[in-house]
Amino acid sequence: MHRFPAEMLSTTSRTRQLNGTCVSSVDLELFLHYSLIPSLFIILVLSFLQRREHRKQRDDTSHLLGNRFEIIIPLDLVGTFSNRWSYGLAFGATANKVMFLFSEGYQPLQIPQWAQAFVLLIGGMEVGLSHFPFFACLSSEFRLLSSILGFSYSLIWFAVTVLYITECPHGQFLGRYETVLFYWPSLLCLAFLLGRFLHMFVKSLRVHLGWELQMEEKPFLEVHQAQHVKRLLRKPPLQETKKSWFQTRIYEWDPCFQFPSRMIGTTVLAFICLYLFIVIEFCMFVYVRDELDVFEGELESYITSVNQTGTLTPVILQVKELMSVTKGVWLVTILSASLTCVSYLFHILACYRKHMKRLWAGNKHFLPLKFHNPSSAESVVAIARYSGWQIAYILWGYLIIHVVQSLCGMLIMYSLVLPVIHNQGLEMLQGLGIGTLTISIVLGLMILQVWIAATFFLQPKMSAADRQKPLALNNRKVFHNFNYFLFFYNVLLGLGACLSRLLISCILGTWLIARIDRTIMQNGYEGADMGFSAWIGMLYVDHYHTNPVLVSFCNILITGHRERRLQRAIKYWYLNQSAGSRISTRSRTRWFLLHTLVNNPRLVMLRKSRSGHGSRDFTQILLTCSDS
């Protein structure tokens, strides 16, 4: 039974009034502004603790800080392979603010329309500055203090978000727990960061108390990079191991390859933003569906008032059917469009690994010719562009793919399903059979032309091992008549080929719009695809800075230089590791004395004796060493 419009309006209005009366005491946008205060405090503290490696003498007041206060970085987006998932979930905590920026709903300043680009730039910098402590505390060398600061800052964001959700858990579109659906990914990421910072604090405290050894500094050469170089130097196995169907068709894990933190963070943030975008789209669908239900009820009341005898009754029934089909198709294609974009995210990671391995091997044939030597400046900018553009491409690509799939679904419904529902199945089958037969005849004639050309108009094979006949004409007179008479038919056939070309280009272009790793432009126009250019530039930067062979070579040079420098200072270079980075002049002199006396035992007896017991003990030790 259909509800009357008045009942529908009253029910919808009551629901929205109930959900819309909630006013939270927490304004997240205002809190974002105030969060800059503790964010700047944490940045200043960590910057003051950071020591400058090369301090220049300047005639200003900077000498008061000594070698303190260096600019800190949130994370290395090029060569960071540790804490990848921590950084990825830190990016995930920013998902809600990124969606506000994407929808251009967050604007900290009100300025004219022509300056909206500057507003978005300022808004993006503010969002980045408010979430800067998450990354800075994860990457700081001062683990104990940074874990305390990071835990405190994450706890503040977690508490404010939980308070906002508990005060207004429901919404105006989805009803119950709508706010929870929007903010649970960010809460999950913040909870993970709380656990991560707590783990850092416990581990740093145990190191500080001497219960555990301090971890070594970040190595210049990662383990997987060294394994990759060893695999290159090792002889390939004579018989390859048999791969499973999943390894052959889907993905094969490579222990000698790791994705950088940029790719992991981009993928995590893209997943969460795609989820939020789908939820927002579903909210809009619910709103439009309610409005269409009200309009459909009004049409139903009109048909009832005219007793289904009005002149507009057939049109109204078709409109109702169109709305019903559109709502059903749009709802069903949400799942297919979502799965398509999710598969794209995984496929992009697989393509990244495949392209990087090809570049490491010196293979550039998979790239267009104009991208074999890209601009260095554009490649550097591509690193900053890639992550944001990848997320935007996925979101817009989802919407475009959803629209295209909905149109395809509408075509299927009106071509196959509705005729059967309206008892017009025979007419539908007749039309489908005629169309299929027409297309089959056209394709058959095209195939027949190729068969005739291969049979009668080409000379025989020169060798039985040849795969095809040589491109040498035979029966030229018949060929010229064949070419002449088919000229007029191919004019008409070319019209259909042109339309099919346009249709296939539109379908492939819209279907692959979210794939930033593949250009949808034709050969020669790839430079107009800015997303693909950013992808290529990012690949080249990673190739030049994380190539395992190059990094291994640089590691050998650095290690050799470091060892030679230590050996010049102290012959027993391992003493530097045991004594630490700071060695006093007195200690170094004593070690030189020990080295000299051990190599010249007779000098021990000639030493001037002192009244102290330490000198006699030291001399006795040297005598024992010389006797041994």
TrEMBL record:
Subcellular location field: Cell membrane
GO terms of biological process kind: vitamin A import into cell
Pfam families, alphabetized: RBP_receptor
Signal sequence residues: none
Keywords (A to Z) from UniProt: Cell membrane, Membrane, Receptor, Transmembrane, Transmembrane helix, Transport
Membrane topology of the entry: Multi-pass membrane protein
Matching InterPro entries: STRA6-like
Statement: the UniProt record of this protein carries the keyword Cell division: no
Membrane-spanning residues: 31-49, 85-102, 114-137, 144-165, 180-198, 268-288, 329-352, 393-417, 437-458, 486-514
Gene Ontology annotations for the cellular component aspect, listed alphabetically: plasma membrane
An MF annotation (GO) of this entry: signaling receptor activity
Main location: membrane
The name this protein goes by in its record: Stimulated by retinoic acid gene 6 protein-like
Organism: Neomonachus schauinslandi (Hawaiian monk seal)
